[in-house]
């Protein structure tokens, strides 16, 4: 288990407020007597419209359409890169009718926000899929290619504002890794953190930032409409259906998948954990989930149980090392 750190004061206050609100809701929606097959609540630890929310609602649809779970609800708990939702989630107790969406973003936020809880405090169920980040500029940007931006960035890093999600999240890590590989000191980046892809989009279109970093699906509609131009994608290899070169293809040796997965609260029994894993494995075989993978350009990355737990431990260590190395 990773060493716990003292919570930041503001995070503690925010978490307390959210917990108080959740307690009131939970009191009127008791799960007493419910089973994961009859009722399941999925926490999306972000605002509606973001990547975790999208994955949670695609999961919800596939579980319903496949008649795997009778009643599936999604609850949004935004804030601090998912760590407010995480803090609330681990306080639920051993409730097998709850799961939370998580992923790479939360790993970074745990470290940067000095979260008092981490993913070791949950019960890993399954990694679902991976998607990728894009580096994006407005259609009227003078930067036609990644090389154009990098050339200007090297000359004066602080004069080029880059917008992305929360500090320590995937967007921030990708910006830092790209800077380092491009010959820019990551500590010199002018990185502006936003609550989600929607705010990054607004900042791009208003020219508050010059370059945006977020998940491909956050920008897909605007790319297809011609309002934004994607300069690079963070995949290791070209992605079918996405007409954007990878960073690696353009001489920047960086690839950063953004995985999404599910955890349960701590303390559930082995039988309850097995039931949740079975539910997810059944869901992953439904036509609805396969269609979600295709529509969202996600890569199937199903990994369950103890293997997923080992993956989380290794990936958290990797993310921590990157944050320390880049000085983020």
UniProtKB/TrEMBL annotation:
Signal peptide (residue range): 1-23
Family: Belongs to the UPF0065 (bug) family.
InterPro entries: BUG, Bug_dom1
Record protein name field: Tripartite tricarboxylate transporter substrate binding protein
Annotated keywords: Signal
Pfam families noted in UniProt: TctC (PF03401)
Organism: Streptomyces lonarensis
Gene3D superfamilies per UniProt: Bordetella uptake gene, domain 1, Periplasmic binding protein-like II
Domain of life: Bacteria
